[in-house]
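pasting MFS transporter for the record, 171 residues
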Amino acid sequence: PQSRGWLIALFWIIFNLGGVAGGLLQFALNYTNQGASASPASYFAFVAAMLLGALVAPCVLAPPASVVREDGTSVSFEQAASPWEELTAALQAVGDPFVKRNLLFFLASNWFYTYNFSGFNASQFNMRTRGLNSALFWGAQMLAAWLFGAMMDLPVPPLERARRGAALVVA
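structre below
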């Protein structure tokens, strides 16, 4: 509980690292491109990066049985009996009242990316600057996650933490 903010921030930083890397890759590969569309090399580079990630990920992930928490307890990991059982459990989770209440928020939280990156960026920037814009956008999310995570872990009363969080949002 005392490091929950940092762990959420770490997840968000890792999650957005792909966007930063993709934006920088697009920026570098299209540095001399003044046109509105990406070079063919961009597509090959993205496919190569995804294949590399798919091959490297199993090599660097720790087996769940070897993960130990800070308090010394092991992480329990339930193996699904079959893909069908896993699908059934996922569908049951969608039926949970909490998920039903928040489904519109879940959908709305990512809806605007299409308009940000395809509508606004495409009309305002060329291919090179779109890559840089994308890298800076995701980098800003990483910085914000770090700031909010650090603030959430401060040893202050919850009301004071809420005030600081609201001030950070407004700033």
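The radius of gyration is 20 Å.
Helices lie at 4-29, 40-60, 83-94, 97-111, 113-124, 127-152, 158-170.
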